[in-house]
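Fold Annotation — chain and its backbone

Fields — amino acid sequence, structure tokens

___
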Amino acid sequence: HPKIYLCKPVPAYGNRWGINDSIIVHGVIPVVKKIAKIDQLPIIDLYKALTGKGDLFPDQIHPNAQGAGLMAKAIYHAITGNKGQLVPAEYPGKHSVWHGFDRYDFQLDRRDCHMILPQKSAKDHPWVWRARFPEWHYQMDSILLSKGLAVVYTNTDKEFGSTKAVKAWDNFYNYLTGFYEFNKKVALEGVSRGGLFAYAFAKQYPERVACIYAEAPVCNIVSWPEGKGIGLGDSVSWHQLIVEYDFKNEQEAENYADNPFQNLANLAKIKVPIFHSIGLNDSIVPPTENTFKLVNNYVRLGGPATIYPNTESKQSLHGHHFEIDNVQAGVNFILNSYGRNGD
């Protein structure tokens, strides 16, 4: 026998995404009152609790952590009749320690996310965003954390850099830059299929990207997961991708014209640097169909690019797994990219 409370929404301090204060006051709140009257339900007035608090709305529509605290206190008081005391929590979710650094696991948009924080943030809060496989070759991220960069991840695993995945990334980006004041430019890390995510986001929002670091990245869906070229392919992932992208059939997927290696002009125009760390004997994501194809197009457009072939260590999984010959090269690339962009 649950007790149901209705809430008046918080005010809007701008006009964005089809939301403004007039719609809330004259459209939403009257409906809330009407339903409350019909069903005899109590109302919690969050509109009043956040009135005059425009400074707590970074994007003019959504309250920040302090605003959320005022909402929590209003709800607690309405339910219990008592005045609540907030327990300070600078970051969300479950806390743990990751290789000596504070890690927080939480959900956003019902997706598993985490942020790993440096002991002391570098100036202007630079950060690294892992597209996939956050524990793979973690050593570089550990060094970057020691240099003051945060490392984050949101799980969009089975979405292959689709429109839905990019939208989720956009929400995650706005959350981190809006609530926690992360730098407006991010260093993207794309490992394997993570290349699909990193380049899809970067091409949609080039102004947000400090650089792209990628390891054996997928740059061509016909190469992987379809495997129509010289690569081995993955039929299960190929059919998942077709569904995720809403392709009508395989032919439409093969004709897709926005692979990572395509439409790079906007990234090249603002000189976003890229660094691909690869294995020359990779037969799952063959460089000739992926990295070489992308970098050739990017350089011809004037984009700065580096390819680092890893040849010194043992390779496995058909050459797709390899040790990084020079971890510091990737570290320096990301640090220099932030410096070069003046961030």
